[in-house]
Write a structure and sequence with these properties.
Strand 10 and strand 11 form a beta hairpin. This protein starts with 14 loop residues before the first helix and ends with a helix. It has 312 residues and is an alpha+beta fold. Helices cover 23% and strands 24% of the residues.
Length: 312
């Protein structure tokens, strides 16, 4: 096989410290291990040639931060106990993508990497390690992770991801998600989201649309009723002061000028039919109702009465 190139040691530390680091990775086999955050794979198991993706979140910690990057990932062999082989080959995987989420706490920063699993890998569990360009710094409290190639993991993987992480759609239904105060499968999360979407859709469908029936008083399309006002309803001329009483001669031969004067006063107070009709029209117009006045025809009685008055 030839000689094996000695890997660069992160932080410039000794091989003894690197061995201790491999023990830390081994402890990560227990779900929800304390002491830091982890990169977790989207799929529990990959095959050579598959595209693998690992995602981790961190809110900061004893390591460096974004300004210490860029950061790069490596795939490292492990022994039969899933301990990272310190002097084993470190297969470069590419740069880690960092995204500030706008959230607080452990979800503050999302770190992810995708790579093609080398086709020459033997089945087994491989350690995922990372550091910056000169391996002088790491990121937040992110420790590392594992990738299972051609074998199933020996323990359930619990992913401490944001529940809206874009990779959740690629998880199997049985993949576990966890966080402070909750633990559920990806299938349960999808079911809850589907139920919520259905409930929202039903609420929108049941909301009736209320038609605005408000009518403006100035709307020209509104037909106003037309009221015909007959002068028959006005003051009848028969109710006025009869001209027979005007200018009559008393028995004593004295002209009835006083009566004529009284008749003139009454006549001046009398409201003719046209004037009465005009008054009604004015009142109706005040209520926004159109009116059409129908003049009263002059009867023969009216004409006779007028002739008598002229003769007197």
């Amino acid at each position: 096989m030839g000689s094996i190139r000695r890997p660069r040691l992160p932080f410039g530390i000794t091989a003894a410290v690197m061995a201790a680091w491999s023990l830390v990775l081994l402890w990560a086999a227990a779900p929800a291990s304390a002491g830091g955050s982890w990169f977790d794979p989207v799929q529990d198991r990959y095959e050579p040639g598959d595209t693998a993706t690992l995602v981790g979140y961190t809110g900061g910690g004893a390591y460096g931060w974004i300004e210490d990057g860029p950061f790069f990932g490596f795939l490292v062999d492990t022994n039969s106990n899933a301990e990272m082989i310190v002097d084993g080959p470190r297969r470069p995987l590419g740069e880690i993508t960092l995204e500030e989420t706008g959230e607080g706490g452990y979800l503050r920063l999302r770190a992810s990497i995708s790579f093609v699993v080398p086709v020459d890998l033997e089945p087994g569990t491989y350690a995922f390690d990372y550091c910056n360009a000169d391996c002088s710094e790491r990121l937040g409290d992110l420790i590392g992770g594992y990738v299972h190639v051609g074998v199933d993991p020996a323990y359930p993987i619990s992913r401490e991801w944001a529940l809206d992480d874009p990779e959740i759609k690629n998880l199997s239904d049985g993949a576990q998600l966890s966080g402070p105060g909750f633990s559920l499968s990806a299938g349960e999360l999808r079911s809850e989201e589907a139920d919520g979407a259905a409930a929202d859709g039903a609420a929108v469908a049941e909301t009736p649309e209320v038609e605005d029936t408000t009518v403006s008083a100035d709307d020209p399309t509104i037909d106003r009723p037309v009221v015909e006002v007959s002068t028959d309803d006005a003051v009848s001329t028969d109710d006025a002061v009869s001209t027979d009483d005007a200018g009559s001669t008393d028995d004593d031969g004295v002209s009835g000028n006083d009566d004529a004067g009284s008749a003139g006063a009454a006549e001046s107070a009398w409201v003719g039919p046209e004037a009465a009709g005009a008054g009604v029209v004015a009142v109706l117009a005040g209520f926004g109702v159109g009116a059409r006045v129908r003049p009263r025809r002059r009867s023969t009685n009216d004409a006779a009465t007028a002739d008598d008055a002229q003769r007197v």
